[in-house]
Amino acid sequence: MAENIKITLYRSLSGCTEKQRAVVQALGLKRRGRSRILPANEAVRGAIRKVPHLLTWEEV
């Protein structure tokens, strides 16, 4: 298992619920096309599972 995960917001947040927006904001993503490198722990993986239709990710 990798130590980090690179997460990119590739879909817009318009039309999403407030919970989905909160999850994306908690991951540190603000605008479409922005990326973050986060630790590969269960909290981050759980957040990715909540909004997989909005994100792309890869293990780094």
Structural summary, described in words:
The protein is of the alpha+beta class and 60 residues long. It has one domain: Ribosomal Protein L30, Chain: A. It is 30% helix and 27% strand. The protein has two helices and three strands. The chain has a three-stranded antiparallel β-sheet with strand order 2-1-3, with no helix packed on it. The radius of gyration is 11 Å and the shape is globular.
Contiguous low-pLDDT stretches (5 residues minimum) are none
Helix amount, in percent? 25-40%
Major β-sheet annotation? 3 strands, antiparallel
At CATH level 2, the architecture is 2-Layer Sandwich
Task: Give the overall average pLDDT.
Answer: 94
CATH class descriptor name: Alpha Beta
Sheet with most strands: strand arrangement: 2-1-3
Q: CATH topology, anyone?
A: Ribosomal Protein L30, Chain: A
Quantity of strands, as a count? 3
> What is the radius of gyration?
11 Å
Instruction: Give the topology string: H per helix, E per strand.
Output: EHEHE
First-last Cα distance: 10 Å
Give the CATH superfamily.
Ribosomal protein L30/L7
Q: Could you say how many structural domains there are in total? A: 1
> How many helix segments?
2
